[in-house]
Design brief:
Length: about 100
Amino acid sequence: MTDDPVELDKHRGMAAQKATDLRRTLAEVESHVRELREREADLEHRLMTVPSASWPEAAVKARYLLNLYAASLPAEDTRHRALVSALLDDFARLGEDS
């Protein structure tokens, strides 16, 4: 008898191996999504509770909010998408001056 672990995946058929790989990948993706949501919640809590000390810091908060808004726009709403894009460009251009 040996103390080496037996790799069970080698003893499964191809379909079972693919199904196992899919389950493992799905579990990993779900874990990453959960972690991302927790990090977003932490960021949003800090953005709400920590006052900006300067205009550039306030622009960071506004940029985050504008990106959330733009992500919720329907693809056909090109006018509002262009407006958000122009404002983000303004933030970037004006931020270079400081």
